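Take a careful look at the sequence and tokenised backbone pasted below. I need to know what the token row says about the fold.
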Amino acid sequence: GGESPPWWRSSSAPASWSGALPEVAAAVRWHDTAGAVAWGELALRGTGEARRTGVVLVLVDPRRVSLRLDLPTTDPAAAGGWLGSSRWSIAAAPAQALLALNAGQFTAAGAWGWLVRDGRELQPPQPGPLAPAVVVDATGRLHVVPAARIDSVRRAPGVVLAFQSYPALLQGGRVPAPLQRGGCGVDVAHRDARLAIGTRPDGRILIALTRFEGLGGALDLLPLGLTTPEMAALMGALGCRDAVLLDGGVSGQLLLRDPAGVAHQWPGMRRVPLGLLAESR
């Protein structure tokens, strides 16, 4: 209605979220809500560089899609292999993909942390108190597994897909303590383009990609936007119980296909080692 109601302030930020915030949920303009992959748009206004922030939201029903990791190559003996390859982008997504986005974090050596593809472990987990794993089990359900539980989940059967990322944004609805105040190992003031994945109580997966709403064109790719605590608040206000950041900045990218087969794309400016795909079952 042309108004901008305030819903979060850093000076009085909640330490936990018990459910979606009605005023935020009501502000999302959803499309294709009957499909396995629904998408929506949300306009946010914050301070400083976040004064014009657009959010692309994707809601995925894991009962109706198959999730898999997309690697530029599946042969570690090939040049660079999956350890050193940073050649993936949404342009590499197959025509049958309903959804494609960059997954996890990476270093100069390639994809970082635990990596399981098609039930086969490609890399072991890496330590980090705020480095959970995104895991898909044999039923197709996605879980954000806290860092402290990764080893036990790793030993159990049924892990079909896994990758690690950081930092955790929500753990059982709670905002991790290092995101609630500065000086605890997480930069809580830095603003950037963000990409996050989370789970809601009904099992559906929520993905959020932020974009600077400039004058269009290349300006929309500027790495400006929300802080990490603000991103945690956004995921909590949209009903997530568990959530983690994925690589954002100039790496953040997303593609989805609507029921008519039309591809909607929000590209990044950098290729990455790893993508996450959703395809019809």
About this structure: The first helix runs from residue 22 to 25. Confidence is low (pLDDT under 50) at residues 75-82. The chain has four helices and 19 strands.
